[in-house]
Design brief:
This protein is mostly helical. It has ten helices and no strands.
Length: 152
């Protein structure tokens, strides 16, 4: 099982906050789990705010998780729609590096096609975004969530 899936399952079981705009905890537990996966020796409490400087932290996060996210595995094993929120939190936290590299977008957009079974509009949009090197956005994750809710 991929590391991101394990983190997502644990986040669901422990009801970890993944609110992108949380001002209470800053989603610290989930962010710390992401950080620990990539930087096992990182100081406790390193969170998304620390990733903004230097950008190399964000790049390392993207390099790691671009290989450690399996959408089909998440969809089967983790809680829906939380796993989409977990991806959204990661995207939000690595926004600067992702806008330059598109690493997560390139890795994840084609995978989403595999779980969208009936929504031809979303499938076409994924294909277009993939072919034209578009960024995966939090808003598009919401479109995917709505599609999955509608057709499952």
């Amino acid at each position: 099982m991929k590391k991101f899936t394990k983190i997502s399952i644990k986040a669901c079981k422990e009801n970890m906050c993944w609110n992108l705009t949380c001002t209470t905890c800053g989603s610290i537990d989930l962010m710390s789990a992401f950080t620990k996966a990539v930087f096992p020796n990182a100081k406790k409490g390193l969170n998304r705010f620390s990733w903004n400087n230097p950008i190399s932290y964000q790049e390392k996060m993207l390099d790691f998780f671009a290989k450690e996210i399996d959408i089909s595995e998440l969809h089967i094993n983790s809680c829906f729609p939380d796993w989409l929120g977990h991806i959204g939190l990661l995207l939000s936290s690595c926004e600067k590096a992702e806008s330059k590299s598109h690493k997560l977008s390139k890795a994840l957009l084609p995978q989403f096609k595999g779980i969208i079974k009936q929504d031809q509009h979303i499938k076409s949009k994924i294909e277009y975004m993939t072919q034209n090197d578009y960024l995966l956005t939090k808003e598009f994750l919401e479109d995917i969530e709505n599609s999955l809710k509608k057709y499952e």
